[in-house]
Fold Adenine deaminase.
Amino acid sequence: MDLDAFTAALPKVELHLHLEGTLEPELKLELARRNGVDIGQSTVEEVRATYVFDSLASFLAVYYPAMDVLVTRADFRDLAMAYFRKAAAQNVRHAEVFFDPQVHVARGVAFEDVVLGYHDAVEEAQRELGLSAGLILCIVRDLPVESAEDVVERMLEFREQVVGIGLDSDERGNPPAKFAHLFARAREAGFKVTVHCDIDQEDTVEHLRQALEDIAVDRIDHGTNVVEDPRLLALLQERGTGLTCCPVSNSFVTDDSKAPVIADLLRRGVKVTVNSDDPAYFGGYVTENLVALTRAASLGPDELIQLQRNAIDISWASDDVKEGFLAELDAYEALVAPPL
Ligand code: ADE
Ligand code: ZN
């Protein structure tokens, strides 16, 4: 079996995926028509022609306006279901997925339509695809703190539907510490905590320090700049804090995929995982991200398996889901790579 086929058939876990970043041009146009929203483009080619970005800020400038097409509970369900179908087709068994409610609420969409629409899809994915999923509410760090406070307060009513809280969007001037009180509140109420420390951002090492030391996050999204500070790297290793890396996305928001550093951290025992971030915009779901990393850093099948072990380990899945996944992974390993 060649390595691409091995990667395609590998049972997988996805931990860094923005649901709004899965809005493919076809669905964007369909929702625009359904809701009578003028997005300024009317063909897939025209939509794709707007996908010009070379930094986090230029990506976000394309990403946020597109969300206008999401209006009703059914729209959020349809978006998430389209993603879960793609994920299941790539053998993803468990997915923890971000959503950005502040952006929707600011447009007049009801908070519960967002959460319950996405949750409808989580239930449907479990029922119809055997895929388990958890929702992570992301604070949009460049919106006013008060708007983050409002959605976190609302989130507390949805303990059954939401598993954790995250922090995304433009990092400049928006350090994790700005939201420390909200992470503390969420954790106290039983939610898990993760924070984006995007690649090569301004003050990136200080943001990593705050995430690890001041907030004591459960994991970090991206975060590979941790190699710049041996003390923080040691702390990360000591705690077993995982990193959710996205090589294809890295090559859009910075000048390369950071494959060597991701592979180096993996080989040093850091709980690195590989994920897709915003696949509709960056053109790669989880399999394509694994293939890109495998080619760029010459990973072997054992390392591809280790990435999945790391992912289920740092996931917030139930014990049942974790055990079931590990049993499937062991069986896959034994079948395709019998021990000598
Ligand atoms: N929101 C959606 N994708 C993001 C990314 N890659 N970084 C920060 N915020 C995001
Ligand atoms: Zn992200």
